[in-house]
Amino acid sequence: MLESILEEFSIKETNAGAHNGRQTIPTPGELITSFSPVDGQEIASTCFVNKDTYDAIIANAVLAFQEWNAVPAPKRGDIIRQIGALLREEKESLGKLVSYEMGKSLQEGLGEVQEMIDICDFAVGLSRQLHGSTMHSERANHRMYEQWHPLGVVGIISAFNFPVAVWSWNAMIAMVCGNVCVWKPSEKTPLTAQACLHIIQKVFEKNNVRPGVCNLIQGDKEVGAWMAADTRINLISATGSTKMGKAVNLAVANRLGKCLLELGGNNAIIISKDADLNMSLIGAVFGAVGTAGQRCTSTRRLIIHEDVYDDFVSKLKSAYQQLKVGNPLEAENHLGPLIDKDAVINYLHAIEEIKKEGGKFIVEGGELEGNKYASGCYVKPCIAEVENNYAIVQKETFAPILYLIRYKKLEEAIALQNDVPQGLSSAIMTLNLREAELFLSAKGADCGIANVNIGTSGAEIGGAFGGEKETGGGRESGSDAWKSYMRRQTNTINYGNNLPLAQGIKFDF
């Protein structure tokens, strides 16, 4: 199966470190070998770009922008529509590759490709709605309005946990707005990126799109640093850790460039005494163990009212006993491996830190061993009773570790939810209208995403996605997030036969 998928996406050139949307560009750079966390097997290899190849890709992208920007937006939208159509045909194969290279369940891999399809549909509609505003001038015979123009070259740095969806959120919107894209995927998931460019290539060739509109460059943090410092790149959209985001933001700010950051999360669900506990259980468990806890929106903390604490914890323990960990391509398994052995080390370190700070495990963690876990990347999802101020609880650990915290009053629960450096996703489970409205008010959750009676994980593309504080403040995907990829221009037109000045200023001579 794997060999046929790799052949289908032309993943066979070991020196293919770059792609310009029309052809693979061989690169004499450092070799990257992608090993699957599912079974530890080598999938295929590619190369990091060197500086010469990088510079050539960016220079060509700058030239491509002039041509792509001249294509009418609805026609750009039609090309995106064709990409979405081809993704529909390739959904099963690409979903399996995502699952095998990254380690998430096949359902989630297919769901990630569906997100790509959905954002293509959104971008098609957007292509006829890139509208500005009109306003009245204080001067007679004058008209004022605002319009939006593309920025130019958009650099996209994506993370391993969503190896294709988050790129598409950025790329499809940026391209339909008239920009060109340069994508640096995670070095941990290089092959799914190559598969995406193979799909793009088919559509671009059919429509005779100039090389350089959608580009791929493989590399590590050094390549990311080149992008952040490059004045030819008008916007850097970076997804990853807060540490990475701070470094990118500093470099981009130093050249007064634009940055869109989607960084860490430390997300909580408040379980009210007025919650539907069975429904709450589904949201909490999927939020905590989906993608093996490696989503930026994963549920890290459950803040539970003391009146329902024991009952809900009992339900949690029962649910965790039923979880199956194993090959994510097998439908009966709920979660697969962590991305690599370094992630396992971080998981084990977090468990030790919880114990040192006084946490009590109610579902024990640890590595899983045996033939079916031979990759060394499988761990047990675990649950610990903690205090919110523990140093380890204040950090984001990319693993299936769930923290439990008690509360008495809703105001206390909201304060606990907000009392972490990150501010991405949040939720409350309650059938009490007053509680729900307070949670959503200015006195409530301080996150970019705040939900009622659904979990923290699983955003739809129709809404803007992003968070506050150390999450970075960026917004991607739906709503008016498209404005991040464009520059605003205010226009005033004088259609009279004299030139009055604003604010009544007289300048006669």
UniProtKB/TrEMBL annotation:
Its EC number is 1.2.1.3. PROSITE patterns: ALDEHYDE_DEHYDR_GLU (PS00687). The active site is at residue 262. InterPro entries: Ald_DH/histidinol_DH, Ald_DH_C, Ald_DH_CS_GLU, Ald_DH_N, Aldehyde_DH_dom, ALDH7A1-like. Residues 32-490 form the Aldehyde dehydrogenase domain. Keywords: NAD, Oxidoreductase. The keyword NAD applies. It comes from the Bacteria. One of its GO terms (molecular function) is aldehyde dehydrogenase (NAD+) activity. It is an enzyme of class 1 (oxidoreductase). The keyword Oxidoreductase applies. It holds the Pfam family Aldedh. Belongs to the aldehyde dehydrogenase family. Homotetramer. PANTHER family: ALPHA-AMINOADIPIC SEMIALDEHYDE DEHYDROGENASE. This is aldehyde dehydrogenase (NAD(+)). It comes from Arachidicoccus soli.
